[in-house]
Write a structure and sequence with these properties.
This protein is α/β, with parallel strands linked by helices. It has one domain: Class I glutamine amidotransferase (GATase) domain (Rossmann fold), CATH 3.40.50.880. It is 28% helix and 23% strand. It has six helices and 13 strands. A nine-stranded mixed beta sheet has the order 4-1-5-6-13-12-11-8-9, sandwiched between helices. A two-stranded antiparallel ribbon has the order 2-3. Helix 2 packs across helix 3. It is globular and about 45 Å long.
Length: 245
């Protein structure tokens, strides 16, 4: 049987139509299609508040994609919100933290994207810059706004990493974010950087299996860029291997 891949969802509020103000559980379809092409069976995991039910979500899945979205609540890493901090979604932070930790506890693969890498880093004791402007040095342009599949800046990978195995020493990515990792969480290592020093990927150290976060939106690039689809292929293969054990 193909591996079951959970994709963390969010809630979108209808702005018009027949039901303005109505909450809808959703995730962008690029995640679903990238998992399908990789050979997995995608399931959208709604935001839940009951810890036991969230744990059961994780137990049912063979792999987890932490998707993009809201800014992570800075209170989780010991900071008060600064002027450029976006609106947080505390219930989603809570739900995804339990999901990620339970998946990793079980040795199941986790692939965290954009907000996902930030949440994963904070969940394990790391911190964030609440906006790129709070970096000590000037940053590159990290939000291209349009053309989601377009490659816009270079990243350099670190030796002995999944990033180096998948992309070689350098590759090009898209970019849609204003927050970045400040302190990498204990037990993780940064394995790719932009040329301004922004952390573009982290990986878990040790024998916990495939636990990878990327700052760019790889799922938006998979249709046009084979290297990005291969990243999903690798993740799904890891989930398949784990399922057989």
């Amino acid at each position: 049987m193909k591996p079951l891949i959970g994709i963390s969802g969010s809630i979108i509020i209808d702005q018009g139509g027949r039901f303005p103000g109505y909450d809808r559980a959703y995730v962008n379809n690029d995640y679903v299609q990238s998992v399908l092409r990789g050979g997995g069976i995608p399931f959208i995991l709604p935001v839940l508040e009951d810890d036991e039910t969230i744990t059961m979500q994780a137990q049912a899945m063979d792999g987890l994609v932490l998707s993009g979205g809201h800014d992570v609540n800075p209170l989780l890493y010991g900071e008060e919100p600064r002027l450029k901090q976006g609106t947080p979604f505390p219930e989603r932070d809570h739900s995804e933290t339990i999901l990620a930790k339970e998946m990793i506890r079980q040795g199941k693969p986790v692939f965290a994207i954009c907000r996902g890498i930030q949440l994963l880093n904070v969940a394990y004791g790391g911190s964030l810059h609440q906006d790129l402007s709070y970096m000590e040095t000037e940053s590159l342009k990290h939000d291209q706004y349009h053309n989601p599949s377009q490659e816009t800046h270079t990243i350099t990978t670190e030796p002995n990493s999944v990033m180096r195995e998948q992309f070689g020493q350098t590759t090009l990515t898209n970019s849609f974010h204003h927050q970045i990792i400040k302190e990498v969480a204990p037990g993780f290592k940064a394995t790719a950087y932009a040329k301004d020093g922004v952390v573009e990927a982290i990986e878990k150290i040790g024998e916990d299996g495939f636990v990878l976060g990327v700052q760019w939106h790889a799922e938006m690039m998979t249709k046009k860029h084979e290297s990005m689809q291969r990243l999903f292929d690798r993740f799904v293969e890891e989930a398949k291997t784990r399922r057989k054990k």
